[in-house]
Write a structure and sequence with these properties.
It is a single chain. The protein has eleven helices and 15 strands. With 377 residues, the protein is an alpha+beta fold. It has a seven-stranded mixed β-sheet, with helices on both faces. The protein has a three-stranded antiparallel β-sheet with strand order 3-4-5, with no helix packed on it. The longest helix is centred in the middle third of the chain and has 28 residues, at 214-241.
Amino acid sequence: MLRARQNDVLIDLTKISSQQLPHLKLTKHFSCPYCGAPVILRQGSKRRAHFAHQTPCRFGEHESESEAHLMSKEILREWLIDCGAKKVEVEYRLPSGNRIADLYFEWDGKAYAFEIQKSMMSPEVFQQRISDYRHARVEVIWIFIGELNRLKTTYRVNRVMRLQKEQPLIHLNWRERKVTIFNQIVWMNQREIEAIRKTFSLDQLTIQQVVEDDQLRVNRRLEDWLALKKDFRCHKFAAYQRKEYALLRLCAPFLINLSLLPSVIGWPIEGAVYTKPLFIWQAYVVLCIMSEYKEQDVFTLSDIQKKLKGLYRLKGGPHCLVGLKCYLDLLVHFGMLKSQFGYFEYVKRPRLYAQLDPYLIEDAQLGERWKQIKDFS
């Protein structure tokens, strides 16, 4: 821990020179700025000078804050003030007293908190923090400061998005004062993602770009997703034409190729379901139903999973059943299936076209229906 209190004065070791440290070590009565417990100043040859608890801190996540964490909070605090945010406070204690926000501010009549995170956390810890902020009626925005270049970007982003789900990921490079916003992230498979990535200088970034309300976020998400679908239809499908032979055999009776997949295929759902890219495994699901069942036929979730695994060797991920159920429910909303008492009825074959343009129009039409689902979810 790099900060402590002494007689109600906050001591920040990142602002203390090496020449001042010997004098500081002679003084006593340091206390934790979070829990108030006594701490001692330590300095050695392997670690920089820091404050250490004699007993565990109730707010343990703050005890190991790095220089990057502290500098990020200071940079964002100055940026919020320059942008006109109100009541900007560092280390703000929520009214319930069980959570300390890295950075609290108010904007357009709403309360927000920045949680600055470098290391990964468990889903349980993440959900508990979300719950604490919701209880206090504070919207939390997660800012990640880990080095994206140290590991593959897709690997780090995937781990973060396992917790973030559909929310945008915001990454701060505090040394260069740059912010990267991943507005649209979808797991295409276990190791591959699609993302709309935009980088801003902190001086050019506005608060509104960071705190978009849910409706604006859904609109942006649909716009970005339609761009991804169009890119797949126009360009990326060709890479899979050379290796997805089983899927091409499924397409052949319907006289389509991978660029002309029905518009019900290729929509974001939570999690990575199959080891193949999202557009591809959803194509297997839809074309399997169209090939193996007649209209008004009834099947269960287990039936379709067994066919996908047995007939097409489609390997499922750890959340396969849940994700597959989400996608079948989406097909119900799109009108291809009906659902009742755990059974699915194949009621309507999706439209098939011989050209690309009608698909692009129908993609946009289904997108509006998808947006309505998100509005009510």
